[in-house]
Amino acid sequence: MNKALRYTMALLLAGLALMLGAPAASAHGGPIKLEVTGDGADNVNVLVTYKEDDHPVTAIVVATLAAKSTDGRTFGPVPLRSAPEGQNLYHAAEPLPAGEWKVTVKATEPSKASKTVKVKAGVVAAVPQAATTTLAPDKAAATGPAPDQAAAGESATGKTVDRAAAASAQEADDSTPLKIGLIAFAAAVAVAAWIVLARRKNLYSRH
């Protein structure tokens, strides 16, 4: 009888493991979408989410970036690399040269998607050293970075990273109640099986 009880418990635990793994495996899939923005410097932010629920794509994303400038120059295609700021945030493997660019990002895995946007890339001019000749006020102002452009770039980058973090938190919150329910159900089934087997054992011992 002890062997039968251990066998039943093993089956229940195996079934519980399969049930807990099923939501994570089947929760996502299908078409993806790309959100492409400039990072305010010389690269782009590419946020990858699922179209149906806007959840982050945690699978490996295979994508490339190509661009064409307003003066006829071309760039890429270059692969995208995962960014440390978010699990579904990507950057181009190489920085964009200075200029205005029409950027196209194409993904092939986990599903096909493409997005084309216009971005501006440029290197911020260095501040002159104290020993150099002092510039006139109007020229000195011209050498500095445009405040509106820098602020816009930082704002776009912050919003993209915050959205990636929020999507990851939402995914974790959505899956927690389901896992708790499955664990409670499996525990109830295990207790019921143990009670039935114990009663049978007592019945056989009387005979």
Describe the structure.
This protein has 207 residues and is α+β, with helices and mostly antiparallel strands. It is built from 3 helices and 7 strands; from the N terminus they run H-E-E-E-E-E-E-E-H-H. The protein has helices spanning 2-26, 137-143, 147-206; strands spanning 32-38, 44-50, 62-69, 74-82, 89-92, 99-109, 113-121. Strands 1-2-5-4-3-6-7 form a 7-stranded antiparallel sheet, covered by helices on one side. A hairpin with a 5-residue loop joins strand 1 (32-38) and strand 2 (44-50). Helix 1 packs antiparallel against helix 3. The two termini are 15 Å apart. Residues 22-26 and 130-134 have low confidence and may be disordered.
Report a brief summary of the structure.
The chain is built from 3 helices and 7 strands, in the order H-E-E-E-E-E-E-E-H-H. The chain is α+β, with helices and mostly antiparallel strands and 207 residues long.
Keywords for this entry:
207 residues; alpha+beta; 7-stranded antiparallel β-sheet; 3 helices; 7 strands
Low-confidence stretches: 22-26, 130-134
- Output the structural class: alpha+beta
Shape designation: rod-shaped
- Roughly what percent helix? 40-55%
Number of strands: 7
Distance between the termini: 15 Å
Side-by-side strand order of the widest sheet: 1-2-5-4-3-6-7
Describe the sheet with the most strands. Answer: 7 strands, antiparallel
Q: What's the helix count?
A: 3
- String of helices and strands: HEEEEEEEHH
Radius of gyration: 28 Å
- The fraction of residues assigned to DSSP E strands is 25-35%
